[in-house]
Design a protein that fits this description.
- The protein is an alpha+beta fold.
- It is 36% helix and 21% strand.
- The strands form three sheets. It has a five-stranded mixed beta sheet with strand order 3-2-1-5-8, with no helix packed on it. Strands 4-10-9-6-7 form a five-stranded mixed beta sheet.
- Helix 5 packs across helix 7 and helix 6 packs across helix 7.
- It is elongated, with a radius of gyration of 26 Å.
- Bound molecules: dinuclear copper ion.
Length: 307
């Protein structure tokens, strides 16, 4: 893992985030201009000779206090409203559809394939560059908010309801997505990786995602099954088909673990499995403190091989 993924709306890599950044600059400059004029008038008023001209004063009050702010604020409002139709327009027909459900405290990600099939993964979202993608967002428990600061968002994920979000990433790279609504103890540890890549790389990744896992003869697979991990986690192609926790079919290929809180490295994975509840307070997965080093080595080696 090289540098940390970008998480800045001002260094944006997507249409939605670019619009937010533009609004931010426009509002800041507009606000600064109003402030300068109001302060300028106040200073002018202080140093006015005591015998003042009534007409001039009235003009200043009406002009500076009512006409000028009305013009500037109306301008800023129209500028902001003009962006709405584009934000509300749905992604064009045939765009990649990705369903994301917020779960305390991770992300269930489901890709819709052109064949109509759906394929599940977790905590890492790949997007093709310069193409519109349509997100269908919901929650499986409390209200979460889906936000990729560098690309766009943010939209609430509400249980029993489907909210839509269109994103248009414009720059290849690795970005960080976050939950932007307080949702409990590990809210701050509910993030995800976003990989924006070329269409070619994206197609390759999507077809890899569809292949079931191999390596059932691996000793770690026996540990996984024996410890009951499959009651909560799925590994497609094996008998593990739990749906409570993140799908682990290709966990070895992901950038991070624990919903983007630790880089996906063997030492971190071992630490996570042994001390889950300490690393992420409130998490449903128990800490497997009693697992032997030998078993843990095999398990981590097996999970790392799931690519
Ligand atoms: Cu989910 Cu905060």
């Amino acid at each position: 893992m090289n540098r940390l993924p970008s998480q800045s709306t001002l260094e944006n890599a997507g249409e939605g985030a670019r619009q937010v950044a533009e609004l931010f600059y426009a509002m800041t400059i507009g606000g600064a201009v109003i402030w300068l004029i109001v302060i300028g008038l106040a200073v002018y008023a202080i140093f006015q000779p005591t015998r003042h001209n009534a007409i001039k004063t009235r003009l200043l009050v009406i002009g500076g206090g009512a006409v000028f702010p009305t013009i500037v604020l109306t301008g800023l409002l129209s500028y902001g409203l003009a962006m709405l139709p584009d934000l509300q327009r749905p992604a064009p027909e045939g765009s990649q559809v990705i369903e994301v459900a917020g779960v305390r405290w991770w992300w269930r990600v489901t890709y819709r394939l052109p064949t109509g099939d759906r394929i599940e993964t977790a905590n890492e979202i790949h997007l093709p560059v310069n193409e519109a993608v349509e997100f269908k967002l919901t929650s499986e428990d409390v209200i979460h908010t889906f936000w990729i600061p560098s690309i766009g968002g943010k939209v609430d994920m509400i249980p029993g309801r489907e909210n839509r979000l269109k994103l248009f990433p414009t720059k290849v790279g690795h970005y960080r997505g976050v939950c932007a609504e307080f949702c409990g103890a590990a809210h701050a540890q509910m993030s995800f990786d976003v990989i924006v890549e070329t269409r070619e790389e994206f197609d390759k990744w999507l077809s890899q995602l569809q292949t079931p896992a191999a390596g059932q003869s691996h000793r770690g697979h026996a540990v996984f099954a024996g410890r009951g991990c499959g009651a909560c986690h799925s590994i497609r192609g094996t008998s593990s088909d739990g749906v409570v926790g993140p799908d682990l079919t290709h966990v070895g290929s992901r950038r991070s673990i624990g919903a983007a809180i630790l880089p996906n490295e063997p030492a971190n994975l071992k630490h996570w499995i042994r001390n889950t509840c300490e690393v992420k307070p409130g998490v449903e997965m128990p800490s497997f403190e009693a697992i032997s080093s030998d078993e843990l080595d095999a398990l981590v080696d097996y999970l790392g091989s799931l690519r």
